[in-house]
Amino acid sequence: MTLKVLPLVIAALAGVTMAIQGSLNSALGKVVGLWETTFIVHLTGLLLVAALLFVCRIGDGCLSNVLQAPWYTYLGGLLGVLIIYGVVRSIPMIGVAPATTAIVMGQVLTAGLVDHFGLFGMNKIPFTLYNLVGTIMMAGGAWLILKQ
Questions:
Q1: What is the DSSP string of the chain?
Q2: Which pLDDT score is estimated for 2?
Q3: Is the pLDDT of residue 12 over 80?
C-alpha cells in the first residue's frame, strides 16, 4: 500500500466509525436524552483518553506544552459538543444516510475553505477547478441520496 493510500484508508475508516457513532449516539439519545447523551459521549471519551495517556503511556509526552497553543485551538472541545448535539438531533429526524451526507458535504465545503485560505495554521492548498467539479459532483450525489 503506498503512502498516499494509507491516509485515505484511515480517513475512510474514521468515516465508518462516525456513521456508527452517530447511530449509537442517536439510539442512546432516545433513551437518556439529547444533552445527557452528549455528556455521556464526552465522559466516556475522556475516560478512554485518560487511560491511554496516563495508564498505557500512549502519547508524545508534550502535555506540558498545553499553554503554548493558540487560544482558538481549544475550541475543538466546544465544537465537539455541537457536533454530537447536531448528529443526535438530526439522525432520528431524517435518518443516518441523509444526515451523514449533509455532514460530509458540510465538512468538504468547510475543508476546502480551510485549505484554500490556510486557516488555523494549515498549509494553503488552492481550491482548483478540479476541486470545484468534484464538490459539484458530490453535491449532486448528496442530492440524489437525500431525494425521497
A1: --TTHHHHHHHHHHHHHHHHHHHHHHHHHHHH-HHHHHHHHHHHHHHHHHIIIIIS--S-S-GGGGGGS-GGGGGHHHHHHHHHHHHHHHHHHH-HHHHHHHHHHHHHHHHHHHHHHTGGGPPP----HHHHHHHHHHHHHHHHHH--
A2: 66
A3: yes
What is the model's pLDDT at position 142? 78
Provide the grid cell at 19: 456513521
Q: Hey, what's the cell of 36?
A: 445527557
> Is residue 8 a contact partner of residue 16, using CB atoms and an 8 Å limit?
no
- Measuring CA to CA, which residue among 63, 33, 32, 35 is closest to residue 49? 63
Q: Calculate mean pLDDT across residues 62-89.
A: 91
* CA 57 distance to own-chain centroid: 25
